[in-house]
Each structure stands twice: as structure tokens, then as C-alpha cells.
Amino acid sequence: MIKGIGLDITELARIQKAIQRNERILDRILTNQEKARYQTLTSQKRKAEFAAGRFAAKEAYAKARGTGLGRLGLQDIEVLPNAAGAPVLKAADQEAGEHIFLSITHSEAYAAAQVIITQGE
């Protein structure tokens, strides 16, 4: 059974400008493990895509949950790759038996993410 669907789109330029103004924004957006992966990226464009994609994924999750980011913070949601490299989202408020499906995509100007939360088989 589908419990929630969320979608978010984020402008890469907005994230890139925020990072250029103050890199500490990354401490708000990314968990420590996400930040470690961010630091391994070599181009500024790829770094902006990564940060914007994670931000969009976390926003999409909050929308799918129906709570927005007020009750759950960005640090309570983490997106890391599985063995095949696909993004996997884990959240502090994830309930037993829930499955979270995540897709992240990038274009020249945007990062977008969709989250679907299901319960049961």
C-alpha cells in the first residue's frame, strides 16, 4: 500500500551560490557520511548536483511523509548509495515494514527527486 508520494525540484545555481557564500550550509544539508562522499567529488558542478540532489530528496521525503521539514530535520534523513550505486534513503522516523523508494535526476539547471513510501509487501 502506498503511504505517501513526494516530489521536489531544486535549482543547481541556488545551491551553488549558497555554498559559495558560506560552505557551512553543507553542514545543514548533508550528514557526515554524505559530506564525506561530497568531498570526494572533483568538479564544482558535480558537487552542486550532489548537494542539490540530496536536498531535493530530503524535501521529497518530507512531502511524502506529509509533515514537511518542520518536524524532521535534514540531518534526520540520509541518502547513501547501495552496492549498485543507486541512492537509498534512510530516515529517523521510518516505521517498521515501510519501504522508501527514491529516484534522483539532474539536468543542466535542476536536480529533482521523487520519493514513494509503501507499507507491507
UniProtKB/TrEMBL annotation:
Its EC number is 2.7.8.7. The keyword Disulfide bond does not apply. Keywords: Cytoplasm, Fatty acid biosynthesis, Fatty acid metabolism, Lipid biosynthesis, Lipid metabolism, Magnesium, Metal-binding, Transferase. One of its GO terms (cellular component) is cytoplasm. GO terms for molecular function: holo-[acyl-carrier-protein] synthase activity; magnesium ion binding. Mg(2+) binds at residues 8, 59. The keyword Lipid metabolism applies. Residues 4-113 form the 4'-phosphopantetheinyl transferase domain. Belongs to the P-Pant transferase superfamily. AcpS family. NCBIfam families: acpS (TIGR00516), pantethn_trn (TIGR00556). This is Holo-[acyl-carrier-protein] synthase. The lineage of its organism: Bacteria, Bacillati, Bacillota, Bacilli, Bacillales.
